[in-house]
Amino acid sequence: MDLFIVKRIQVDRGSSADVLYKHVFDQLKILENGLKPVKTPLIGFSGVVVYPRVAIMLLVIIGEASRQALVDVTFIMVDTSNPYNTILRRPGLNIFGVVASTKHLLIKFPTKCGIGQIIGDQTASQECQVAVVKLKGKKKPLSIGNIKFKDNIELESPEPMNDLVHVTADEEDKTKVFRIGSKLWDPKK
Prior knowledge:
With about 190 residues, this protein is an alpha+beta fold.
């Protein structure tokens, strides 16, 4: 990525924007002249809204020596915590013509000299996944014990719309019964 080797790249075939995190952006020391402001928010699967700051086109090279592909990829820079350095999503993957196998932690792509491939690091992948889960876990859930109702509020329970019929579930054990609406059950059936 612009003459830097970048590791911990998440491949995400389901999303529609290639992402570069601010900590990487800062380390790359990118000049301001190639930046374009972005005003469209990103919405993650969990519903969290992230507001990207800028977009930038970077030259990305993937692969090893004789089987490399290089293209310009437009990344949007976001300032959030994430163990990954960047996320290569549908737009970038499509430009490279990538075929990804998540089961094998492998991507393949066409090059001028044949098919190139990158094999992911399973240990690093697991470490990043654990870190993502820990980041999500830092959000404090609302404890039910903290909710107080006003003194005069009574919680309502639903009432049946019609009479209930008691039906024995087990002829040998008459204590096992269930109730069903009288309009839903015909004892003749």
